[in-house]
Amino acid sequence: MIKSMAAYNGREIPKEDKVFAACGKALDAVSKYGPAEVINATVGALYDDEGELMVLKSVEKVMKSLPAEKYAA
Questions:
Q1: CA–CA separation, 66 and 71 (whole Å)
Q2: What are phi and psi of 53, to 5 degrees?
Q3: What whole-number distance in Å separates Cα of residue 23 and Cα of residue 44?
């Protein structure tokens, strides 16, 4: 039996998240070509004006309250 924090909704979830994969490619392009040449227009990752990943405090609070076994996999 598979245990999940999310209720089954009938869809298959791929092992690699497409949004974060696209974001990773954009970040690689920034490293290769420079920030002036690349616009990261992906949805799903939010960065501040300094280019640092932003995390919602409400999400951080919940994640920190969970045991690692619930989110690490």
A1: 7
A2: -65, 130
A3: 8
Summarised one tens digit per residue, pLDDT across range 52-73 is 888 888 988 988 899 988 877 6
Amino acid found at 47: Y
Domain-by-domain residue ranges, the chain? 18-71
* Cα(51)–Cα(62) distance, integer angstroms: 24
CA distance 33 to 6: 39
Tokens of 29: 């392009």
pLDDT tens digit sequence for 17-46: 777 788 889 889 999 999 899 988 877 667
Model-level pTM? Answer: 0.46
